[in-house]
Structure formats: C-alpha cells, structure tokens
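WARN no homologs supplied; continuing
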Amino acid sequence: MVTVIERKRSEASVAPAETVSVAATARAKAVGGEGLYKKRTPIYPKLVRGRWRNVKWLLLVVTLGIYWITPWLRWARPAGLPQQAVLVDFTGGRFYFFFIQLWPQEVYFFTGLLIIAALALFLVTALYGRLWCGYACPQTVWTDLYIAVERTFEGDRNARMKLDASPLSFDKAWRKGGKHAVWLAIALATGGAWVFYFHDAPTLWKNFWVGQAPLTAYVSAAVLTFTTYSLAGTMREQVCTYLCPWPRIQGAMLDHHSLQVIYLKDRGEPRSPHKKNQSWEGRGDCVDCQQCVIVCPMGIDIRDGGQIECINCGLCVDACNEIMVRVGRPTGLIGYDSDDAVDGRLVGRPPAYKFVRARTIYYGVALLLVCGLLTWGLLTRSPVVFDVLRDRDPTFISLHDGSIRDGYTLKVANRTFDRQVFTVTVNGLSRYSLKTPGDPASSSALTLVAEPNQVASMRLLVSAPADALSAPALPVTFQIRSKTVTAVKRSVFLSGQANTL
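OK structure emitted
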C-alpha cells in the first residue's frame, strides 16, 4: 500500500512544467490549433448601412484626403526658401507649417504637441470610450479602405467566404490578384505620400520615378508600403488586439459614466428567434440574428459585454437598428450608452449621463493648460536668437597703449523671412571701441547683417582704456537693433589692469 502511494506521488511530482506544456498543447489541438497558439480565423465583416457607417466613410475620406493632399499645398516664402506649406526639412534643419517656422532648438514645441495629443485622447476616452480607435486611428482608416477594395473584387461577406473555400480557378485568380494589386498601389501611395512631407513634393515626384531621388526616400517608401500592406491587408484586427498598447491602457481612463457601445441587456434578454406575428410577451427584443457579430470587423459578440477587442466603431449599432426596424421594435438595443445608465434602468432609475466628473475635469484642465502654454510660447516667440560667446584663451589682452581688449563671438539666428541689418552696441563701459579682426578702424557701433532664416556670426573685439575700468570684471550688455527687432545679451568684460590693483 505504501509503495503504491509513493509511486503515485512520484509520478505527480515529475516534470510539472512538461506536464502543463503537454496539457496546454492537447487543449490547443482540441480547439483546432496546431500548437500552443490557435491559428487565426479569418473575419469576413458584412457591409452595413446606417448613421455610424456613414460617419466612418466621411472620416475616411477626410483623413485620407488631408494626408495625401497636404504635401502638395504651397506657401509663399522668400526666394531660396521652401515653398511647401508643410515640410520637415532635415537638410536645412527647419520645420515649416504654413506661417510657422520652427528650428531644431525648438523641439519643445513638438513635445507640447505630443502632450496635447495624449491629453486629448485621454479626455475623449474618458467621455466616449475608444472613439479614436473606431473612427480616426490610421489602422482603422486603412483597414476600412482595404476591406472596401476587397468587397469590390470579391463581393460581400458570403461571396468572399465562398470564394475562399472554392478551388483555384481563373475567376478566383483574377479577383485575388486584382485585389492585392490595388492593395499594393494604396500601400505605395501611403509610403510615397509620407516621404513627400520631408522633401519638396513636385521635385521628389519627378525624381522618384527616374531613380534620382535620395536613397532615404526609396527606403522609407518601401518600409511604409510593406507595413501598410501587411497591417491593413493581412493582420487587421490582430494589430488592435495584440500590437496596440492602447486597449490595455484605456481601462485607466474609463469609468461607469463613459459612453461606449453597449448591448442593453435590460431590453434584449431573454433573447430568442422571432417569427412574424409572434407575441413579444415574456421575452426580450434581441432576436438572436447574429447580425451584430457578422458586421463586426473585430469578430466579437457585443452581447458578451465589454471586451478588449471592441473599438467602438458603431457598426453593430447600425446592424441592430436595421433589424429592430424590420421586426417593429424600437431602435437602440445596441447603442452608445454608459454602464451607469444601464444599471440604473435595471432597477427602475432613469438614466443620467455625467460628463463633468473628476477625471474629465483633470484631463480638460491639463489640456487647456498645455494648449495655453504652447500658444503663449508661439505668440511670445522671439524673431531672433542672440547669443554672445566670450573668448576664454586668452581671456584678455593688454595693448601697447595700456588699454584692455576682450574678444567675443556674436551669433544671431534670424528666424524671420526678412533680411535684418543690426547695429551692434555695448552698454556698461563708460568708454570703449569696437572693431572686427582685420579691420584697422574702430568705432562705438558696428553693423551685423543676418540673412532670412539664417544664422549670422561676427567676431568682435572690445577695447577700453585702463583708467575707465574700475573692477576686475565688469558686467556689460550687448545690444543689436534693427528697424523691427531689438535684442540684448549679458556678458562680462575682464580687466587685466584692474586685477593688478
């Protein structure tokens, strides 16, 4: 008896990890998989018509139109500067957005834009759930376009399923081939439009097709062509479920008052098929037609409750409303609603939608604050950046007449599109003279010319008589003044004569 018990204990304790792995593999094979992971089941979303489908079509046209048209917009700038309205000019080190021009040193503006985008996404999610995912996310937009192309060549849901199940034939080959050809063309147009944001679009368009465009343009276009084709054409819902981190983050933004696509169980249950002239007594409005599942691009059943895969696109709302009209029941069995409103109706409490609450106030105030700071930064942005670099070797020079000379380098970044002629003066010294190396003459003011959108530099020598220097280090202020711009910069004048006192 003892021997049998010990043998059973020994068998149970041997290779537990291996036993679990074998069990998991067996379970996976039992549900149709080949290993630990089940093979992807293709989703064939059916075309549906309705309010939210029309909104998605509208946003698809608008967003893709903005993406493809923007690089071709022109904006008048001085000769020699890019005439493209929106351009990321890595060669010139500038970012142009219509009348706004940003330099590399102003990268904090881009940081501000990213923060604004994040806060806006947080606020929209807290109010309306995954509205961005369902209507404006690039993955959603391009996937919708690819599915539309697929329907054009292969037909709607049933026709596509039948075509995939049929053996290879000429009809199947040309439909599949035509679909993939258009997909590749769209993917190439996607990657091609992206590189236009980094080069002058008309020039790059001509050079691209004759092999004279920069290598980076071809590489970028190829990478984006591949990613667009694979993500929107083959991976589709897997990107939203497995690659995108947002479904796992959104839970921190949502609460019971957030509007989401919800199945109203208080109305729909118990569900059962419906026949014409059949009474609705003792049953819910859901006729279990599965149309909400058939039209879902993620392949889920919204009646199972909130799910990480749901992108709140509203297509199930349109499908359900169409069925409710057919069977003579009120629409809205599936709709944008909040968990709080649904729970309230279950206990006879009228629904109340609370849009102003702690988290929406936090997100809204933070969004307004960052927008205000970014706007203030743009409005108060200096048209020039003035800097003074004092020589450190030697720190000063004692001239033959007993005066002291310090050397400086002046740099002026002219951020305007106008040529600026500056007068350079120094404040803080009772008597001084200015000159540039190689210039025998000196004066109390010099001229510095800064071309449009360029950095001007001047080597400046400042001399002062020894009897005018009262301290080892005298604070001085350099000033540049043009007809429209004035800028100052503080520095210090070191006196060798004073240091000997």
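The chain has four domains: 1-39, 51-81+135-250, 252-346, 384-499.
OK
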